[in-house]
Write a structure and sequence with these properties.
Number of helices: 4
Order of helices and strands: EEHEHEHEH
Shape: globular
CATH topology: Transcription Regulator spoIIAA
Structural class: alpha/beta
CATH architecture: 2-Layer Sandwich
CATH superfamily: STAS domain
CATH class: Alpha Beta
Largest sheet: 5 strands, mixed
Distance between the termini: 39 Å
Number of strands: 5
Strand order of the largest sheet: 1-2-3-4-5
């Protein structure tokens, strides 16, 4: 059984860009809420989205797959997805699998917003 309390997601808009601040762990048990935040099932695909992973303590292949799918969907609609603030453990996973070669990664949300 999953432990949803291991994850929290806050959303805000900065200059027309959706910013999702994710805290906790992104894995098989928590991927549903992350997927729904990245690509809300009842909403239009966002055109510009920054995922702030500064408070993510762990991410496995479930998270990698979610970000790849979100990138493909958002890019297909003419938008972009950027990752910001990933800590060393999460950044290492992103780099090992090459996600950083597909999705633009930035040290801070501010840098991700400006591109």
């Amino acid at each position: 059984m999953g432990r949803p309390s291991r994850l929290s997601i806050e959303e805000r808009t900065v200059d027309g860009v959706r910013v999702l601040s994710v805290s906790g762990e992104i894995d098989h048990d928590t991927m549903g809420p992350v997927r729904d935040a990245l690509l809300p099932p009842d909403a239009v695909t966002p055109r510009r989205l920054v995922a702030d992973l500064g408070a993510v303590t762990f991410m496995d292949s479930s998270g990698i797959n979610l970000f790849l799918a979100a990138h493909q969907t958002i890019s297909a609609s003419g938008g972009w997805l950027r990752i910001a603030g990933a800590g060393s453990a999460v950044r290492r996973v992103i780099e090992i699998v090459g996600l950083d070669l597909i999705v633009s990664c930035h040290p801070t949300v501010e840098e991700a917003l400006t591109g």
